[in-house]
Design goal:
- Pfam families: EAL.
- This is EAL domain-containing protein.
- There is one protein chain.
- With 268 residues, the chain is an alpha/beta fold.
- It has one domain (19-267): TIM Barrel, CATH 3.20.20.450.
- Helix content is 40%, strand content 20%.
- It has helices at residues 4-13, 53-62, 66-87, 107-118, 146-166, 181-187, 212-222, 235-241, 260-267; strands spanning 19-27, 34-45, 49-51, 92-97, 125-130, 169-175, 192-195, 226-229, 248-249.
- Strands 1, 2, 3, 4, 5, 6, 7, 8 and 9 form a 9-stranded mixed β-sheet that branches.
- It starts with a helix and ends with a helix.
- The relative contact order is 0.13.
- The model is unreliable at 140-149 (pLDDT under 50).
Length: 268
């Protein structure tokens, strides 16, 4: 049997054979209306079965194939979004970007060309940028050298700005979990902030931890960002946060990631 890294390379060179996307719903808590979906990659590998993302994503990063992979995810997700936007024009599809993509100066042009090819409005797509990226301001740079870190952050900021100019929406993922939350909100033109799921845990029990979600929500609103609360898993958690003015929620309480056909049947 081939090793997993070898099979990953074979998959990539065969148009990502064995990879597919699942979609997790994002809903507006005040109305119950569907806001959009997050596209999440899955890999079924012969001899190994379903390989978890926290296994194959680091492998893609180590082999330098992560940018190629994320372009494939973007194409697949955008193509699916085109179909669902025809059913619901305000539908939004979110895809994740790794820090390596901030090193690609042509990312904005690539995304723009792909959307033009599909005939899909940029506003229907959203890129999720992890708040703890090394290239975001205030985070520790990979090289450990301050000057290099500033140069990388400036280059990453230029790429983010170019994405914003295309009309694609931008979200900060895992807000509050990393190094540079406040600086990132100040310096980057985010449309949506996704509050890390760790802040949701314990909200139903009250106490000090319950104060974080409303405080973070007010902070995000004060700088003009909408808020998505991730990781809402129980009815108790939902009841504890549903009156906080949060625009979007996501989590197992609303629905797990499912194949496109099931998503369409359940939510569209």
């Amino acid at each position: 049997m081939f090793s997993l890294p070898t099979l990953l390379t074979i998959s990539i060179e065969n148009n990502f054979h064995g990879f597919f996307l699942h979609y997790q719903p994002q809903l507006c808590p005040d109305s119950g209306r569907l806001y959009g979906a997050e596209a999440l990659a899955r890999w079924s590998c012969a001899g190994y079965g379903n390989v978890a993302p926290d296994v194959f994503i680091p492998m893609l990063e180590e082999t330098g194939r992560i940018v190629e992979f994320e372009k494939w995810v973007f194409r697949e997700a955008a193509s699916q979004c085109k179909r669902w936007a025809a059913l619901r024009p305000d539908f939004r599809m979110s895809v994740n970007l790794s820090c390596r993509h901030l090193e690609q100066a042509d990312l904005g042009r690539y995304a723009q060309d792909e959307l033009k090819r599909l005939g899909l409005a940029p506003s229907n797509m959203m890129f999720e940028l992890t708040e703890s990226w090394p290239l975001l301001p205030g985070a520790p740079c990979q090289s450990g050298k301050a000057a290099a870190g500033r140069k990388e952050a400036a280059a990453g900021g230029a790429v983010v700005s170019s994405l914003k100019e295309t009309g694609i929406r931008l979200a900060m993922d895992d807000f509050g979990s990393g190094y540079s939350s406040l600086l990132s909100l100040q310096k980057f033109p985010f449309d949506l902030v996704k509050i890390d799921r760790e802040f949701v845990k314990g909200t139903a029990r009250g106490g000090a931890q319950a104060a974080f979600v409303p405080s973070l929500t007010r902070l995000c609103h004060s700088v003009g960002c909408q808020v998505c609360l991730e990781g809402v898993e129980t009815a108790e958690e939902y009841e504890a946060v549903r009156r906080l003015g949060i625009e979007v929620m996501q989590g197992y309480y609303f629905g797990r990631p499912v194949p496109a056909e099931e998503f369409e049947r359940l939510y569209l």
